[in-house]
Amino acid sequence: MEEAYNLRQSDSALSDISEYRALKLLEELNRLKFLGHEPYSNQN
Known about the structure:
Blueprint: H1 2-8, H2 12-36
């Protein structure tokens, strides 16, 4: 995201590509984090 912000000042196309890549990576990390959680069990 920081790279995308920095590029926005000089090259908007590269900024958009960098932002897209960062968001896709974040989405993948969140998906893996979600899949890595143990299912909630209601144990008292």
